[in-house]
Amino acid sequence: MENTLGLEIIEVVEQAAIASARWMGKGEKDIADQVAVEAMRERMNKIYMRGRIVIGEGERDNAPMLYIGEEVGICTREDAKAFCNPDELIEIDIAVDPCEGTNLVAYGQNGSMAVLAIAEKGGLFAAPDFYMRKLAAPPAAKGHVDINKSATDNLKILSECLNRAVEELVVVVMDRPRHEGLIKEIRDAGARVRLISDGDVSAAICCAFAGTNIHALMGIGAAPEGVISAAAMRCLGGHFQGQLIYDPEVVKTGLIGESREGNLNRLKEMGIHDADKVYNADELASGNTILFAACGITPGTLMEGVRFFGGGARTQSLVISNQSQTARFVDTIHLFDNVKSLQLR
After folding, report:
1. Within a 13 Å sphere around the CA of 237, how many CA atoms are in the beta-carbon half?
2. Are 101 and 113 in contact (CB under 8 A)?
């Protein structure tokens, strides 16, 4: 699958990032999201595959979606049989977030990216558009830290695994009222906190890369993005755990569903009977072959954002594979309007 789709999915996230980046700093988060969705869909529908969206984007914001269950790929064309035999095409499940961090794009802030993860059919957890309590940590701490332990205990374990003092650890937490107690506990334990307004996929992945100065992600964020993070962390050997949060009183803002009981019923309808189960990366991204791809929209810790120049743009992407056990950073020049020479700026 990597040989067949590796370059294709890089181009999918690149096109989404370029489209969204044109709206950077204009205060229009829904438009920045919409154009990313349209660009991602258009490019995916040129790929020789039978794709199905298992995790879509944007329901919480009433934004345009690549909706759950949508079929994508060349086989969606009415004249598909003129190009290929759909029955011979690879079947894959796809998780997407065409503009992860819409507010970051709208207000010209760092850390937004276009992102997706793919696996063979049935290889990604079909997470509802709820929230998820998350714990991400470096590979050295995999299986040692535990989401059921307190932040204080996990910081002590992380300190031992990384051979660092607790005071040297940096924990990323979403800046939300629901995290006031968590933030206080982390600080009281002696660690440092990096607050982010959006974009916890990037924060989770950074835990797996040395030199990012991010050692853990803690707290509650969106469940679909949790699955995408888990896919990347499984490929990288990092620690990731997630537990669905279905109670509006816990999240305090923006949860789909009017009541705890209604959300529990929705989970049962989706075949999730143990609503409090803690999932690890292997369960959230269980496929034999996992591919993750992201492209920076605005500058971030791992990737540069889209940089436009006269007649083109430059992007930086990341593609991670558990098949080849690689994480590749791809620097690409995109030429518009028949530009004759590369302008590296």
Report:
1. 10
2. yes
Distance CA 280, CA 343 (A): 44
Per-residue model confidence as pLDDT tens digits over 141-171: 999 999 999 999 999 999 999 999 999 999 9
CA distance 45 to 69: 15
Phi then psi for residue 25, to 5 deg, are: 80, 5
Separation CA 245–CA 14 (nearest Å): 32
Residue 40, by phi and psi: left (phi above 0), alpha (psi -120 to 50) or beta?
alpha
CB contact burial 143-152 (16+ within 10 A = b; e otherwise): eebbbeeebe
pLDDT digits (tens, 9 = 90+) for 25-70: 999 999 999 999 999 999 999 998 989 999 886 444 455 578 888 8
Residue 254's nearest CA partner among 58, 61, 66, 98 is 61
